[in-house]
Design a protein that fits this description.
Order of helices and strands: EHEEHEHHEHEEHEEHEEHEHHHH
CATH class of the largest domain: Alpha Beta
CATH superfamily of the largest domain: NAD(P)-binding Rossmann-like Domain
Bound molecules: nicotinamide-adenine-dinucleotide, 2'deoxy-thymidine-5'-diphospho-alpha-D-glucose
Mean pLDDT: 96
Strand order of the largest sheet: 3-2-1-4-5-6-10
Number of domains: 2
Number of helices: 12
CATH architecture of the largest domain: 3-Layer(aba) Sandwich
Helix content: 40-55%
Largest sheet: 7 strands, parallel
CATH topology of the largest domain: Rossmann fold
Low-confidence stretches: none
């Protein structure tokens, strides 16, 4: 049996990854360590709760004692745990520094002491910052522009330093924007899909021409698994979907699929420090033999259908206190 510690496994990508791994491999056992912040949701893993290969531990990656204890029982670490929303990092960066930087440090130290077999650090394409033309390779300088991406950069480079200094078997992945089931409805696609279903406005920041590269979450999970098995230690791998779209294009597709009027589109005050375009060059992982499988339009349609069929999952999340605060702070119509 291969024993994995997945941190942040009750969040969007982590929960999809755990489900994906249990389905794909018979010989894996997974411990999911998650603090259950607002983004961590036991509903995301309801269907696998009774799988004997899966164990959930509610806890903080910053808790040294707990992390050290768990580390004695596992071989692989996949660190998804993070504060992940850029807008929140603009409003209140503290938790981003604590979890994304210090929490990663606690995990790396415990991994070193306990001589784990492999440590996968889930970083992000946002560490490079914005690019007008062309695509970033893994060797490009890191120029993060939000407290979120800066804290992820800290974790990314700290993980690398543990490889160089202590020979810790680290691999780092930098993925582009994910979408799919269980995506928290504060992010662009799930927010717009659920707002449109409810006939509410879709708040587009600035001119809506910012570009993101979208990847279906299952492809990302597959990429992480591939890198864990085939990647070289100490290396960074970009993972992208190859689907660059403006926010206006995404919005248009959502409205058309749901047969909702264009008048739901509302232009609002821009995000502070809003990165214009993300783009990663994925030839390094392609040379190793991996590329994403999902067709973007089909995957987006599938995701929209999932949200239409699962309002039990998202309705209660949208009635939270933060969503009210968020609407007032960032959704000022221009
Ligand atoms: P998410 O916000 O949905 O989930 C984060 C999870 O981490 C939650 O379950 C939360 O409870 C948990 N968590 C937060 N602080 C914790 C702590 N101190 N201890 C233990 N658990 C804690 O995020 P996501 O979108 O699933 O992203 C997962 C990871 O992937 C993050 O590291 C993010 O930076 C990275 N990433 C995300 C994307 C994307 O498009 N969403 C793209 C590239 C990389
Ligand atoms: O690129 C990878 C990153 O993608 C991850 O590291 C982050 O964890 C993840 O949150 C995501 O960051 P973004 O800032 O790109 O995602 P978000 O969904 O917040 O925004 C996508 C684009 O949509 C961005 O240009 C801002 C815009 N937007 C977003 C929201 C929430 C709007 O126009 N209106 C909105 O209400």
């Amino acid at each position: 049996m291969k024993r994995y510690l997945v941190t942040g496994g009750a969040g969007f990508i982590g929960s999809n990854y755990i489900r994906y791994m249990l389905k794909k491999h018979r010989d894996v056992e997974i411990i999911n360590l998650d603090k259950l912040t607002y983004a961590g949701n036991p509903d995301n893993l309801k269907d696998i709760q009774t799988d004997s290969r899966y164990k959930f531990i509610k806890g903080d990656i910053c808790d040294e004692v707990l992390v050290n204890k768990i580390m004695t029982e596992i071989d692989f670490v996949v660190n998804f745990a993070a504060e992940s929303h850029v807008d929140r990092s603009i409003g209140a960066p503290d938790d981003f520094i604590r979890t994304d930087v210090f929490g990663t440090f606690v995990l790396l130290e415990a991994a070193r002491t306990n001589k784990i077999e492999k440590f996968i650090q889930i970083s992000t394409d946002e560490v490079y910052g914005s690019i007008d033309k062309g695509s970033f390779t893994e060797n490009d300088p890191l120029m993060p522009s939000s407290p979120y991406s800066a804290s992820k950069t800290g974790a990314d480079r700290l993980a690398f330093s543990y490889f160089v200094t202590y020979d810790l078997p680290v691999i780092i992945t930098r993925c582009s924007n994910n979408f799919g089931p269980f995506h928290y409805p504060e992010k662009l696609i799930p927010l717009f899909v659920t707002n449109a279903i409810e006939n509410k406005n879709l708040p587009i920041y600035g001119d809506g021409k910012n570009v993101r590269d979208w990847i279906y979450v299952e492809d990302h999970c597959d990429g992480v698994d591939f890198v864990c098995q085939n990647g070289r230690l100490g290396e960074v791998y970009n993972i992208g979907g190859g689907n660059e779209r403006t926010n206006l294009e995404i919005t248009d597709r959502i409205l058309k699929k749901l047969e909702k009027p264009q008048s739901l589109m509302t232009f609002v005050k821009d995000r502070l420090g809003h990165d214009r375009r993300y783009s990663v060059d994925c030839s390094k992982i392609a040379d190793l033999g991996w590329k994403p499988k999902d067709n973007f339009e089909e995957a987006l349609d599938k995701t929209i259908s999932w949200f239409m069929e699962n309002n039990w999952w998202w309705k209660k999340l949208k009635n939270g206190e933060y969503m009210e605060y968020y609407k007032q702070q960032y959704k000022e119509v221009v």
